[in-house]
Amino acid sequence: MSSTSAFFFFFASTFLYANAFNITRILNLNNEFSTFNNLLSQTGLASTIDSRQTITVLALSNDAMSLFSDQSTEDNKKSLSLHIVLDYYDIKKLKSLNKKSVILTTLFQSSGQAKGQQGFINATVMNNGDVMFGSAVRGSLLDSKLIDSVATHPYNISVLHISSYIPIMNPEGPSDHGSSSTPLPPQPPNDDDYTFDEPPSPPSSTTKPFVAAATAATAKPPSAAKANTTTSGVSAINAPDLAFAFAFVISSFWFFMTV
């Protein structure tokens, strides 16, 4: 085996080891989560969690699992998938929000079955320092409290103990929680790190061509030759120039390969 192959094998093995975890074994260390653990296996979510490189599981203790005994396996899968966040969040990271709210994307959102903001949950640091969770659907309450950390493996998996389940809310409004005194914005977030109290970013120079294009649309149309020279403020590349650039790159690559 060459030194290059040996290095690659060592790197790949180290990477796989660093990213390997088993949610069933993690939860087996604490009988308090036995019901939650069993349902993850029954619904197939355990293997889904293990296949992810970065994940946060909001675990429920046995005394908070009564709802799930009356639901079908499919409904349990939907409910539990809302408690699986597609990013790494430990207590330190959540506490560092500094009394801000953050929208978290869950496995339920990635399933394609969520409507509106159903697949997102809101995590907020309260004035007293508590971290509260709730549905990101407008009008939902934040009534699930972060209790403690069950296990962490930065930055692959974090298992957090929360006080109560987070319901899948009706996207048209609250289904069983009533109204919230601090309603959420109606628009879905773009990513996991969206915070409600961040000021909007100032317009960048890259947005100006689009404004100009919108203004030009209401004016007299330019000539066809002029319209083909620019697209959203970026010069168009002619076919001969593109072919020359491609040939130059290929020839340079071949030269360095033969040296």
From TrEMBL:
Keywords: Cell membrane, Glycoprotein, GPI-anchor, Lipoprotein, Membrane, Proteoglycan, Signal, Transmembrane, Transmembrane helix
Subcellular location: Cell membrane
GO CC entries: plasma membrane; side of membrane
Domain FAS1, first and last residues per copy: 20-151
Signal peptide: 1-20
Region (Disordered): 171-213
Residues annotated as transmembrane: 239-257
Low complexity bias (residue ranges): 204-213
Topology term for the membrane: Lipid-anchor; GPI-anchor
Similarity remark: Belongs to the fasciclin-like AGP family.
Role: May be a cell surface adhesion protein.
Protein name: BnaA01g30420D protein
Source species: Brassica napus (Rape)
